[in-house]
């Protein structure tokens, strides 16, 4: 996609094409967080995540097999390496 090649990621994520594909993925995956589902929990998905970084793999940006419906907490954990609100502080 040219928007990704031009490093205009925001424009990609608000483009009608991405909005259409991400809505289809959420519907096809029943609005269920796929990560929580693997852990035996149910949580409503509100985000579509690229399994490989979109900047490194722009050709996969709209490929549904490469996309995963996830909740905002799992998305945060994916990008920040720890659950939101996590404090790594030892108290003795």
TrEMBL record:
Top-level division of the source organism's lineage: Bacteria
InterPro entries for the chain: HNH, HNH_nuc
Domain HNH nuclease, chain residue ranges per copy: 20-76
Keyword Hydrolase applies: yes
GO molecular function annotation: endonuclease activity
Listed SMART domains: HNHc
N-terminal signal peptide: none
Keywords: Endonuclease, Hydrolase, Nuclease
Family label: Belongs to the HNH nuclease family.
Protein name in the entry: Putative HNH nuclease YajD
Organism (species): Solibaculum intestinale
């Amino acid at each position: 996609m040219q928007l990704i090649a031009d490093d205009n990621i925001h424009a990609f994520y608000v483009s009608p094409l991405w909005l259409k594909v991400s809505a289809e993925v959420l519907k096809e995956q029943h609005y269920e967080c796929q990560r929580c589902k693997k852990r035996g929990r149910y949580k409503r998905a509100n985000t579509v995540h690229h399994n490989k970084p979109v900047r490194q793999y722009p050709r996969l940006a709209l490929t549904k097999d490469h996309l995963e419906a996830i909740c905002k907490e799992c998305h945060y954990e994916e990008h920040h390496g720890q659950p939101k609100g996590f404090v790594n502080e030892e108290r003795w």
